Amino acid sequence: MELPLLSIIVFSPAVGALIIMALPKHRHNDIKLVAAIASAISCLGSIYAFFTYDTAAGGIQFEEQFAWIPAIGTSYHVGVDGISLPLVLLTGVIIFAGVLVSWVREQRPREFFALLLLLVTGVFGTFVALDLFLLFVFYELAVLPMYLLIGIWGTTRKEYAAMKLTLYLLIGSSIALAGVIVAYVDAGLGTFDLLKLAEAGFEPGLQTLLFLPIFVGFDVLGGLWPFHTWSPDGHVAAPTAVSMLHAGVLMKMGAYSALRVGVLLLPDAAQVWLPWIVILTVINVVYGATVAFAQRDFKYVIGYSSVSHMGYVTMGVATICALGSSPEGAQLGLSGAVMQMFSHGVMTGIFFAVVGLIYRRTHTRQLPELGGLARKLPLVAAAFIIAGLSSMGMPGLSGFVAEFQVLMGTYKAFPLVAILSLIGVVVTAAYILRFTYMVFFGPLKEEFRGLPPISAAEKFALAFMCIFIVGFGIAPGYILQIIHTGVSEFLAAIQ
Amino acid sequence: MDFPILSAITFVPLVGALIILVFKKGQEELIGRLSIAFAVVPVLLAILLWVNYDQDLGGIQFQEDYEWIPVLNSRYTMGIDGLSLPMVMLTSVLSLLAGLYSNFTIKERVKEYFISLLLLEMGMMGVFLSLDFVLFYVFWEIGLVPMLLLIALWGGPRREYAAIKFFLFTLAGSVLMLLAIIAVYLKTDTFNIIEAAAAQPWADNIGAASLAFFGFFIAFAIKLPSFPIHTWLPDAHTEAPVCGSVLLAGVLLKLGAYGLVRMPLSMFPQVFGRFVVDIPILPILAVISIVYGAMVCMAQWDLKRLIAYSSVSHMGYVLLGLCAGAAGIYLGGDYLESANLGLNGAAMQMFTHGVTTGGLFFLVGMIYDRAHTRELRDFGGLGVQIPYYYGMMLVTCLASLGLPGLIGFWSELFVFRGAFGTIPLYAIIGGLGIVFTAGYILWKIVQHMFLGQPKERWASLPDMTSWEKATLWPLVVTMVIFGIYPMPILAPINGFMHSLVENLAQILH
Predict the structure, then answer these.
(1) Of the candidates A425, A437, A481, which has its C-beta nearest B175's C-beta?
(2) What is the span of the domain harbouring residue A159?
(3) Tell me: the pLDDT tens digits for A145-192?
(4) Range of the domain at B338
C-alpha cells in the first residue's frame, strides 16, 4: 500500500501534540524532543514530497481520498500540486526552525508546544485540502490556537493583540464560509469537493456577488490592506515561533485560500474585481514599507514589512486579469506570487527568529537602545542581512526570483501598478539598511558586552532557513519548474 | 577558442572569495597574498583576450551562450567587443592594484575586506561582459553590496551615511532600469541586449521610446554620475577606504557610461538624438557637470573631496561625447564623422579617467597614511620633502587635466572635436571646464601641496615605499605610453564606435 505521505505530514504534529499533553509537565526536555521529532517528520516528509513530485506528469499528486461525512458531501480528499507543494515545504521548514528557536522556552512548554503543533496540523491541512469543508476545518484549526498562544506566551499588549487577531481572522473566515456555503448550495452537486465545484461553474451574477466575501474574507489573513491591522500587533505580541509561523506561513494560507477557492471557483468574477483589488495591493506594498520605516520597535518593523511583502503576493494573483491579452504575463505574475509566498515565508521566518534571539538576550526591542550587536552575534547578523537583501530583491537570493516575476506579470496587466510598486523596493532597501545598521552596527552598549552567544539549536535553525533563501536564489530552476507546472494548470482550469 | 574565458575572468574572483571564506583570524597575510593571486588571473586572462581579439573582424567575440532560466527566457550570454575590451582590462588591473595596496594598508577584518573586494571585481566584470539583460541586472546589483560594505565598514567618519546614500541612490536607479528592461523585453520578446538593440523597440512611437529611454538613462546617469543626481558621489568617494574609492571612481562610474552606450544609445538613438538636438536637456546636463563640477573642485580644501568632485567633472566629458555621438547620428550625413570622434572620446575618457583617477585616489591614500590629514591648507612645499611622490602625483594630475603627451589629452581631444562638429555651443561651454580643471589641479593641488615653503611639520615625512611605487607605476606607465601612442586603446574603441555609428545611421536614415 502506498504510504499516505500527506496525511503523515499533516497529522504528525497533531500526534506529537497528543503525546506531549500526556507527558508530565515538568519533563521539559522530553516535551521538546517530541516536538522536535514530530516537526522533523513533517519537515522531512515535505522535503521528500517536494523533491519527488513528478513535474513532467504534473497535476495533483500524493492524492488520498477517504469518505468522511457523505451526508453533507464532504470527503477527506487531499493532494498537492505545483502551487501548494512549495507551501507545504515552507511550512515544514518553518515549523522545524520554529521548534528549534523555541528550545529555551521555560514557561509551560507542554501547553505551548502542543498548541503550536496543533496549529501546524491545521496549516498543513489547509494547503493539501481538496475538499472545501475539510479546508475550513483545518483553517479554523490553524486560527484558534493563536488566541491562546499569543494571549498566554506573548509580549507587548498580548491580550489585546490576541483578541484582535482572532476576531479579525474569524470574521474574515466566517464571511468566506458564508460565501462558500452559498456556492455549495447553488452548485447543487451535494459535494464540497473543490475540483468538482470548480468544474461546475457558476453563473456570472452569482460569481460577482460571492467573489468579494470569499476572496477578501480569506485575504484578510493574507494581510490585504485595509484589513491588515491585526497583523502588526498580532505578530509583535506573539512569541517568536508563533510569529515565524504566522507571518511566514499563515498569511500565505490566507492568500492561498483566496486563490484556490476564490479564483478557482469564481474566475469570471475574479477578472471583474481584481483590477480594483490590485489598487489595494499597491497600498500594501508602498504604505507597508513606509510605515515600517517609521517604527521604533524592531519587531514592528518586521511586522509591517510582512504587510508590505504580502502585497506582492496578491498583486501577482491579480495578474490573471492579463490572461486574455497576455497569458505569459499571467503565468509569470502568478508564479511570482507563489514564489513570493515561499520566499517571503522563509525570509520572515529568519527575521522573526533573529528578533526573538535578540530580545531574549537584550530584553528590549527599541531601536535606539540596540546597536553594535554584530560583534557579539555575527552569525545572527549575517542571517539577518541575507534575509534583508532577499527582501529588497537582491539577485542571487530567492526574493529577486519572486519579485522579478511579479513585476513582469504586473507590468503586462497593470503597468502603472508595476511602476508604483517599485517605490516599495526602494523604501524597503532604505528601512532594511537603516535597521540593520541601528541594530547590528555602531557602538556596542556596555550592558550588552556579556550577551550569551548563539546556541547550537538557534544556529541550525537560522542556517537551515538561509539555505533555502540562498539555494533557491542561485538555482531557482527546480522550484520554478514545480511552480510553473502548477500555475499553468491553474490558469488552464480557470479559462 | 572553446575555453570559456569570459566566464573565467568573471568567476575566478568568486572562487578566490569562497576559498578565503574558510580562513581564520591570524592568517591575514596569507589571505592578502591569496587575494593578489586571484586578482592576477583576470589580468592575465584580459591580456590574453586583448592579444587574441581580432580587430579586423570586430564585433562580439569569445561569445558564450548557455541556457540559464528557461522560464524567464533569459540566457547566460557573455561576449566582449571593442567597447568592453578596454573596460575589462581596466577593471582587472585596478582590482589587482587595489588588492596589492590593501595588503599593506588594511589591518582590520582583513578576511571580510578581501572577500568584498573580490566579489566586487566579479560584479564589475560581469556587467561589462553580460549580453543578457537579466544577467546584466544581476551582476549590476551584485556589485552594489560589496561596495556598500567597503564604505560602511572600512570607511571614514561619515561612512554609514555615505554608504547608505550610495546604495539607495544606485538602487533607485536600478529599479528604474529594471522597469525599462521589462518593458523592452515585453516589446521585443528577447532579453538579449544585442538583439533588443537591433530590434529598435518603439521606433515608431517616440513617446513610449522616450519613457523607456529615460528609465535607462536616469539609472545610468545616477551612476555616471551626472548633474543633478550626482550628490551621492562626493560623500561616497570621500568616506570610502582608499581602494574603495579607486574602484568606485575607476570602474563603477564606467558601468554607467558603458550602460549608456549599450542601452539608451543603441536601442533608442532617435530619442537620444532628439534630446540632444531638438530639446537639448542632455548636453546641458553634461556641460553643467563639467563646469559646475570643476568650479566646486576649485572650492574644496579636502583633497579627497576635491578629487571626488573632479570625477563628476570628468565624467561630464563622457556624457558630452555621448551627446555629440547621438547628435551626429541623429543628424546624419556629414555629421557622422564627428559622431564617431565624439563617441571615441567618450569611451577613451572612460578608460583614461579610470587610470588617472584611480591613481589620484591611491596617491591621496598614501599622503593621508603619512600625514593623517587631507586638508590642503596643511600642506606646502612637499615637492622638496617627498620628491618621488611629487613626481608621480604631478604626472597623474597632468594626465587628468589633459596635457598633450599624456593619456588624458586624447580623450578630451576627441570629445571636443566630436562636440564641435555636432553641438558646438556645448563644446565651447564645456571648454570652459578645461580651464577650470587646469585651475583646480594646478593651483589647488600642485601649488598648495608641493610648491612654496616646506613646512616644519613635514620635515621627516617618508617618501613612497616600494609597494606604493609598485601600485602607481603601472598606472603612470599607462598614462605616458598611451599618451604618446594611444592606438592600442583607440583601435578597438574606434572599431566598435565606427560600426555602431554606421549601423545606427543606417537605421535612422
Answers:
(1) A425
(2) 5-494
(3) 999 999 999 888 888 999 999 999 999 989 999 988 888 888 888 788
(4) 293-509
